[in-house]
Amino acid sequence: MDGSSFAAPLNSLSAFLDRENAEDEMPTPVCMDTGALRSGILKIPQDKRGFLVQTDSRSYYWRAQSQNEAEAWLLSIGTQCAAMKEMELLRQAEARIAAAQQQQSETCVRKVPKENKNK
Protein backbone atom coordinates (compact mmCIF):
# COMPACT_ATOMS: atom_id res chain seq x y z
CA MET A 1 0.00 0.00 0.00
CA ASP A 2 1.47 3.32 -0.99
CA GLY A 3 1.01 6.50 0.97
CA SER A 4 -0.38 8.57 -1.92
CA SER A 5 -4.01 8.00 -0.85
CA PHE A 6 -3.15 9.44 2.56
CA ALA A 7 -1.57 12.68 1.33
CA ALA A 8 -4.56 14.96 1.97
CA PRO A 9 -5.29 13.74 5.51
CA LEU A 10 -1.59 13.93 6.38
CA ASN A 11 -1.36 17.53 5.19
CA SER A 12 -4.38 18.47 7.28
CA LEU A 13 -2.80 16.81 10.32
CA SER A 14 0.51 18.64 10.05
CA ALA A 15 -0.84 21.68 11.94
CA PHE A 16 -2.06 19.41 14.72
CA LEU A 17 1.25 17.58 14.95
CA ASP A 18 3.25 20.82 15.10
CA ARG A 19 1.34 22.32 18.03
CA GLU A 20 3.26 22.53 21.27
CA ASN A 21 0.45 21.21 23.43
CA ALA A 22 -0.20 18.10 21.32
CA GLU A 23 1.60 16.03 23.98
CA ASP A 24 -0.86 17.12 26.68
CA GLU A 25 -4.09 16.48 24.79
CA MET A 26 -6.10 13.43 25.69
CA PRO A 27 -7.37 11.42 22.73
CA THR A 28 -11.10 11.54 22.10
CA PRO A 29 -12.63 8.09 22.54
CA VAL A 30 -14.14 6.76 19.32
CA CYS A 31 -16.10 3.71 18.36
CA MET A 32 -15.02 2.56 14.93
CA ASP A 33 -16.61 -0.12 12.79
CA THR A 34 -13.54 -2.12 11.79
CA GLY A 35 -15.58 -3.80 9.12
CA ALA A 36 -15.51 -0.47 7.29
CA LEU A 37 -11.72 -0.32 7.46
CA ARG A 38 -10.82 -0.67 3.81
CA SER A 39 -8.32 2.10 3.15
CA GLY A 40 -5.70 1.25 5.71
CA ILE A 41 -3.56 2.27 8.65
CA LEU A 42 -0.64 4.64 8.30
CA LYS A 43 2.07 5.44 10.82
CA ILE A 44 2.80 9.18 11.05
CA PRO A 45 6.54 9.75 10.44
CA GLN A 46 6.62 12.96 12.54
CA ASP A 47 5.04 11.22 15.53
CA LYS A 48 6.18 7.73 16.46
CA ARG A 49 3.17 7.21 18.74
CA GLY A 50 0.55 8.55 16.34
CA PHE A 51 -1.12 6.85 13.43
CA LEU A 52 -3.90 7.50 10.99
CA VAL A 53 -6.71 5.00 10.42
CA GLN A 54 -8.77 5.60 7.31
CA THR A 55 -12.15 3.99 6.77
CA ASP A 56 -14.71 4.42 4.02
CA SER A 57 -16.57 7.02 6.06
CA ARG A 58 -13.83 9.05 7.78
CA SER A 59 -10.27 9.29 9.06
CA TYR A 60 -9.21 8.75 12.66
CA TYR A 61 -6.00 10.10 14.16
CA TRP A 62 -4.86 8.19 17.23
CA ARG A 63 -1.96 9.00 19.48
CA ALA A 64 -0.84 6.45 22.03
CA GLN A 65 0.76 7.29 25.36
CA SER A 66 3.72 5.02 24.62
CA GLN A 67 5.31 3.18 21.71
CA ASN A 68 4.22 -0.14 23.23
CA GLU A 69 0.62 1.07 23.42
CA ALA A 70 0.74 2.18 19.77
CA GLU A 71 2.04 -1.23 18.70
CA ALA A 72 -0.67 -2.95 20.76
CA TRP A 73 -3.36 -0.81 19.10
CA LEU A 74 -2.04 -1.59 15.64
CA LEU A 75 -1.93 -5.30 16.42
CA SER A 76 -5.44 -5.20 17.85
CA ILE A 77 -6.88 -3.30 14.88
CA GLY A 78 -5.09 -5.57 12.42
CA THR A 79 -6.33 -8.69 14.19
CA GLN A 80 -9.89 -7.38 14.26
CA CYS A 81 -9.77 -6.46 10.56
CA ALA A 82 -8.42 -9.90 9.66
CA ALA A 83 -11.20 -11.53 11.69
CA MET A 84 -13.84 -9.38 9.96
CA LYS A 85 -12.45 -10.26 6.53
CA GLU A 86 -12.38 -13.96 7.43
CA MET A 87 -15.99 -13.75 8.63
CA GLU A 88 -17.05 -12.14 5.34
CA LEU A 89 -15.25 -14.84 3.34
CA LEU A 90 -16.95 -17.56 5.40
CA ARG A 91 -20.36 -15.96 4.80
CA GLN A 92 -19.69 -15.87 1.06
CA ALA A 93 -18.61 -19.53 1.09
CA GLU A 94 -21.72 -20.55 3.05
CA ALA A 95 -23.94 -18.67 0.59
CA ARG A 96 -22.29 -20.42 -2.37
CA ILE A 97 -22.66 -23.83 -0.72
CA ALA A 98 -26.34 -23.14 0.07
CA ALA A 99 -26.98 -22.05 -3.53
CA ALA A 100 -25.26 -25.17 -4.90
CA GLN A 101 -27.27 -27.41 -2.56
CA GLN A 102 -30.50 -25.67 -3.56
CA GLN A 103 -29.71 -26.15 -7.23
CA GLN A 104 -28.83 -29.82 -6.66
CA SER A 105 -32.11 -30.38 -4.77
CA GLU A 106 -34.13 -28.74 -7.54
CA THR A 107 -32.38 -30.91 -10.13
CA CYS A 108 -33.17 -34.06 -8.13
CA VAL A 109 -36.84 -33.05 -7.77
CA ARG A 110 -37.13 -32.44 -11.52
CA LYS A 111 -35.79 -35.94 -12.20
CA VAL A 112 -38.44 -37.66 -10.06
CA PRO A 113 -41.18 -39.12 -12.29
CA LYS A 114 -44.49 -37.23 -12.13
CA GLU A 115 -46.45 -40.25 -10.89
CA ASN A 116 -44.19 -40.43 -7.80
CA LYS A 117 -44.65 -36.71 -7.04
CA ASN A 118 -48.43 -37.11 -6.54
CA LYS A 119 -48.14 -39.95 -4.00
Distance N terminus to C terminus?
A: 63 Å
Structural class: mainly alpha
Strand content: 5-15%
Major β-sheet annotation: 3 strands, antiparallel
Architecture blueprint of SSEs:
Blueprint: H1 7-18, E1 40-43, E2 50-54, E3 59-63, H2 67-111, H3 114-117
Antiparallel strand pairs: 1-2, 2-3
Protein name: PH domain-containing protein
Organism: Eimeria necatrix
InterPro entries: PH-like_dom_sf
Features:
mainly alpha, PH-domain like, three-stranded antiparallel sheet, 3 strands, 12% strand, rod-shaped, PH-like_dom_sf, PH domain-containing protein
Q: Can you describe this structure?
A:
The chain starts with 6 loop residues before the first helix and ends with a helix. It has a three-stranded antiparallel β-sheet with strand order 1-2-3, covered by helices on one side. The longest helix has 45 residues, at 67-111. The chain has a single domain (3-114), classed as PH-domain like, CATH 2.30.29. The protein has 119 residues and is mainly alpha-helical. The protein is rod-shaped. It is 51% helix and 12% strand.
